[in-house]
Write a structure and sequence with these properties.
By secondary structure, this protein is an alpha+beta fold. Helix content is 54%, strand content 12%. The protein has a three-stranded antiparallel beta sheet. Helix 2 (26-41) crosses helix 4. The longest helix has 16 residues, at 26-41. The chain is globular, with a radius of gyration of 12 Å.
């Protein structure tokens, strides 16, 4: 379990790196911020278990295509580890790195 302070520190560290990463766009930051929010609202349990619908709502993403693009890029860039569930009731596992 990750404390709220540790989750906030993860977000601060993310922002310190993302500022200088030219690949990062507002949607990436919104998505990561949504993950931090969901992590803190679930008492810091890692991995974060989340459904696509819930994460899209929190991150203000309206397109499924954009959702998959952003999650794949964040994993490729090394900001998260993503384990898809393929079960809409179970939710995918996402680790903040």
């Amino acid at each position: 379990m990750v404390s709220r302070v540790e989750t906030i520190e993860l977000f601060i560290g993310f922002m310190q790196v993302a500022i200088f990463d030219e690949r990062m766009k507002p949607l990436h930051i919104s998505f990561y911020a949504g993950l931090v929010y969901l992590s803190t609202s679930s008492n810091g349990v890692m991995p974060i278990r989340v459904t696509r619908i819930k994460l899209m709502k929190v991150a203000k993403i309206n397109s499924v295509v954009t959702y998959h693009k952003i999650i794949a890029q964040l994993e490729l860039y090394g900001y998260i580890k993503y384990q898809p569930s393929y079960n809409r009731f179970e939710g995918s596992r996402i680790y903040l790195i």
